[in-house]
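Sharing a chain and its predicted structure for anyone who wants a worked example. Both blocks are below, sequence first, C-alpha coordinates second.
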Amino acid sequence: MRINFDPSELDRNTFYKLLTAVVVPRPIAWVSTTNRDSGTDNLAPHSFFTVSCVSPPIVQFTSVGRKDSVRNVEETGEFVVNLAPEHMFEQINQTATDFPSDVSEFDAVGIAREPSLRVKPPRVAASPVALECELHSTVRLGDSTVVFGRVVHAAVSEAVMVDGHPDVKKLRPLARMGKNEWGTLGELWEINRIPLEEWPDLLGR
Protein backbone atom coordinates (compact mmCIF):
# COMPACT_ATOMS: atom_id res chain seq x y z
CA MET A 1 0.00 0.00 0.00
CA ARG A 2 1.25 3.48 -0.89
CA ILE A 3 0.50 6.94 0.47
CA ASN A 4 -0.35 9.37 -2.33
CA PHE A 5 0.75 13.01 -2.49
CA ASP A 6 -0.60 15.61 -4.91
CA PRO A 7 1.71 18.65 -5.19
CA SER A 8 -1.22 20.82 -6.19
CA GLU A 9 -2.83 20.13 -2.81
CA LEU A 10 0.27 20.70 -0.68
CA ASP A 11 2.14 23.87 0.17
CA ARG A 12 5.55 24.46 -1.37
CA ASN A 13 7.65 23.58 1.70
CA THR A 14 5.80 20.35 2.42
CA PHE A 15 6.36 18.99 -1.08
CA TYR A 16 9.94 20.33 -1.11
CA LYS A 17 10.67 18.27 2.01
CA LEU A 18 9.10 15.22 0.36
CA LEU A 19 11.15 15.56 -2.82
CA THR A 20 14.44 16.12 -1.01
CA ALA A 21 13.74 13.12 1.24
CA VAL A 22 13.24 10.70 -1.66
CA VAL A 23 15.67 12.06 -4.28
CA VAL A 24 18.72 10.83 -2.37
CA PRO A 25 21.64 10.78 -2.09
CA ARG A 26 22.33 14.12 -3.77
CA PRO A 27 25.94 15.11 -4.55
CA ILE A 28 26.98 18.58 -3.42
CA ALA A 29 28.45 21.28 -5.63
CA TRP A 30 30.45 23.56 -3.33
CA VAL A 31 30.37 26.55 -5.64
CA SER A 32 32.86 29.41 -5.46
CA THR A 33 32.18 32.66 -7.31
CA THR A 34 33.51 36.21 -7.28
CA ASN A 35 31.46 39.41 -7.12
CA ARG A 36 32.13 41.50 -10.23
CA ASP A 37 32.12 44.88 -8.47
CA SER A 38 33.54 44.25 -4.99
CA GLY A 39 35.76 41.26 -5.73
CA THR A 40 34.25 39.40 -2.77
CA ASP A 41 34.64 35.63 -3.06
CA ASN A 42 31.44 33.70 -2.37
CA LEU A 43 31.25 30.03 -1.40
CA ALA A 44 28.02 28.05 -1.04
CA PRO A 45 26.87 24.40 -1.18
CA HIS A 46 24.21 23.37 -3.69
CA SER A 47 22.77 19.85 -3.48
CA PHE A 48 20.79 20.00 -6.74
CA PHE A 49 23.87 19.15 -8.81
CA THR A 50 24.84 16.76 -11.59
CA VAL A 51 26.65 16.23 -14.90
CA SER A 52 24.56 17.39 -17.85
CA CYS A 53 26.77 16.44 -20.80
CA VAL A 54 30.22 14.98 -21.41
CA SER A 55 30.90 16.32 -24.91
CA PRO A 56 31.15 19.20 -24.33
CA PRO A 57 31.68 18.73 -20.58
CA ILE A 58 28.76 20.49 -18.87
CA VAL A 59 27.78 20.41 -15.20
CA GLN A 60 24.74 21.99 -13.64
CA PHE A 61 23.57 23.19 -10.25
CA THR A 62 20.28 24.70 -9.17
CA SER A 63 19.92 27.67 -6.87
CA VAL A 64 16.59 27.96 -5.09
CA GLY A 65 15.92 31.69 -4.99
CA ARG A 66 18.21 34.49 -6.21
CA LYS A 67 21.35 33.80 -4.21
CA ASP A 68 24.84 35.29 -4.47
CA SER A 69 26.12 32.32 -6.47
CA VAL A 70 23.68 32.89 -9.32
CA ARG A 71 24.09 36.65 -9.40
CA ASN A 72 27.87 36.38 -9.47
CA VAL A 73 27.85 33.71 -12.18
CA GLU A 74 25.48 35.67 -14.39
CA GLU A 75 27.57 38.84 -14.02
CA THR A 76 31.04 37.29 -14.45
CA GLY A 77 30.35 34.11 -16.43
CA GLU A 78 32.62 32.02 -14.21
CA PHE A 79 32.47 29.66 -11.22
CA VAL A 80 34.24 26.70 -9.64
CA VAL A 81 32.60 23.49 -8.43
CA ASN A 82 34.62 22.16 -5.50
CA LEU A 83 33.99 18.62 -4.31
CA ALA A 84 32.51 18.59 -0.80
CA PRO A 85 34.72 16.20 1.20
CA GLU A 86 33.68 14.43 4.38
CA HIS A 87 36.44 15.97 6.50
CA MET A 88 35.06 19.49 5.81
CA PHE A 89 31.48 18.62 6.79
CA GLU A 90 31.00 21.35 9.40
CA GLN A 91 32.66 24.05 7.30
CA ILE A 92 30.52 23.17 4.30
CA ASN A 93 27.40 23.49 6.42
CA GLN A 94 28.62 26.84 7.78
CA THR A 95 28.96 28.24 4.25
CA ALA A 96 25.23 27.66 3.78
CA THR A 97 24.60 30.52 6.24
CA ASP A 98 22.87 33.48 4.59
CA PHE A 99 25.74 35.95 4.97
CA PRO A 100 25.42 39.44 3.42
CA SER A 101 26.71 39.59 -0.16
CA ASP A 102 29.73 41.68 0.88
CA VAL A 103 30.92 39.00 3.33
CA SER A 104 33.10 36.22 1.97
CA GLU A 105 32.31 32.76 3.29
CA PHE A 106 35.98 31.89 2.79
CA ASP A 107 36.90 34.54 5.36
CA ALA A 108 33.91 34.17 7.69
CA VAL A 109 34.36 30.41 8.05
CA GLY A 110 38.16 30.37 7.74
CA ILE A 111 38.56 28.36 4.54
CA ALA A 112 41.83 28.59 2.63
CA ARG A 113 41.73 29.58 -1.03
CA GLU A 114 44.01 28.63 -3.87
CA PRO A 115 44.06 30.31 -7.29
CA SER A 116 42.30 28.73 -10.24
CA LEU A 117 44.08 28.35 -13.58
CA ARG A 118 41.37 29.32 -16.08
CA VAL A 119 38.82 31.37 -14.14
CA LYS A 120 38.93 34.16 -11.56
CA PRO A 121 36.96 32.57 -8.67
CA PRO A 122 39.33 30.69 -6.34
CA ARG A 123 39.28 27.02 -5.49
CA VAL A 124 38.88 25.58 -2.00
CA ALA A 125 42.46 24.61 -1.20
CA ALA A 126 41.53 21.56 0.91
CA SER A 127 39.00 20.13 -1.55
CA PRO A 128 40.42 17.23 -3.56
CA VAL A 129 38.63 18.20 -6.79
CA ALA A 130 37.92 21.54 -8.46
CA LEU A 131 36.02 21.94 -11.73
CA GLU A 132 36.64 25.37 -13.20
CA CYS A 133 33.66 26.42 -15.28
CA GLU A 134 32.55 29.08 -17.72
CA LEU A 135 28.85 29.87 -17.85
CA HIS A 136 27.02 28.08 -20.66
CA SER A 137 23.46 29.16 -19.88
CA THR A 138 20.86 29.56 -17.17
CA VAL A 139 17.24 28.47 -17.08
CA ARG A 140 14.62 29.96 -14.76
CA LEU A 141 12.19 27.39 -13.38
CA GLY A 142 9.66 28.83 -10.97
CA ASP A 143 11.54 30.12 -7.92
CA SER A 144 14.81 28.48 -9.00
CA THR A 145 17.63 29.03 -11.48
CA VAL A 146 19.46 26.15 -13.13
CA VAL A 147 23.05 27.09 -13.97
CA PHE A 148 24.87 25.18 -16.71
CA GLY A 149 28.65 25.53 -16.81
CA ARG A 150 31.20 24.26 -19.30
CA VAL A 151 34.15 22.68 -17.50
CA VAL A 152 37.29 24.32 -18.87
CA HIS A 153 39.73 22.82 -16.36
CA ALA A 154 39.68 20.02 -13.79
CA ALA A 155 42.20 19.89 -10.93
CA VAL A 156 42.40 16.66 -8.90
CA SER A 157 44.63 16.00 -5.90
CA GLU A 158 47.31 13.37 -6.48
CA ALA A 159 46.37 11.90 -3.09
CA VAL A 160 43.03 10.61 -4.39
CA MET A 161 44.33 9.12 -7.64
CA VAL A 162 44.67 5.35 -8.11
CA ASP A 163 45.98 4.00 -11.43
CA GLY A 164 45.42 7.36 -13.07
CA HIS A 165 41.79 7.69 -11.97
CA PRO A 166 40.11 9.38 -8.97
CA ASP A 167 39.22 6.78 -6.32
CA VAL A 168 35.84 7.45 -4.73
CA LYS A 169 36.95 5.78 -1.49
CA LYS A 170 39.71 8.38 -1.21
CA LEU A 171 37.47 11.27 -2.30
CA ARG A 172 34.98 10.57 0.53
CA PRO A 173 32.33 12.89 -0.96
CA LEU A 174 29.46 14.18 1.13
CA ALA A 175 25.84 13.93 0.00
CA ARG A 176 22.60 15.50 1.15
CA MET A 177 19.71 13.37 2.31
CA GLY A 178 16.32 14.44 3.63
CA LYS A 179 15.60 17.02 6.34
CA ASN A 180 18.92 18.10 7.90
CA GLU A 181 20.58 14.77 7.15
CA TRP A 182 23.92 14.37 5.40
CA GLY A 183 25.76 11.22 4.43
CA THR A 184 28.88 9.80 2.86
CA LEU A 185 29.94 6.51 1.30
CA GLY A 186 28.39 3.31 2.53
CA GLU A 187 28.84 -0.13 1.01
CA LEU A 188 30.08 -0.15 -2.60
CA TRP A 189 29.44 -2.72 -5.33
CA GLU A 190 31.17 -3.10 -8.68
CA ILE A 191 29.49 -4.81 -11.62
CA ASN A 192 29.98 -4.78 -15.38
CA ARG A 193 27.16 -3.82 -17.72
CA ILE A 194 25.73 -6.89 -19.49
CA PRO A 195 26.32 -6.82 -23.28
CA LEU A 196 23.21 -7.32 -25.39
CA GLU A 197 24.66 -10.39 -27.07
CA GLU A 198 24.74 -12.21 -23.71
CA TRP A 199 21.02 -11.87 -23.08
CA PRO A 200 19.88 -14.83 -25.26
CA ASP A 201 21.87 -17.22 -23.05
CA LEU A 202 20.55 -15.64 -19.87
CA LEU A 203 16.97 -15.93 -21.14
CA GLY A 204 17.43 -19.56 -22.15
CA ARG A 205 17.04 -18.95 -25.88
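Comments welcome. The chain has one domain: 7-202.
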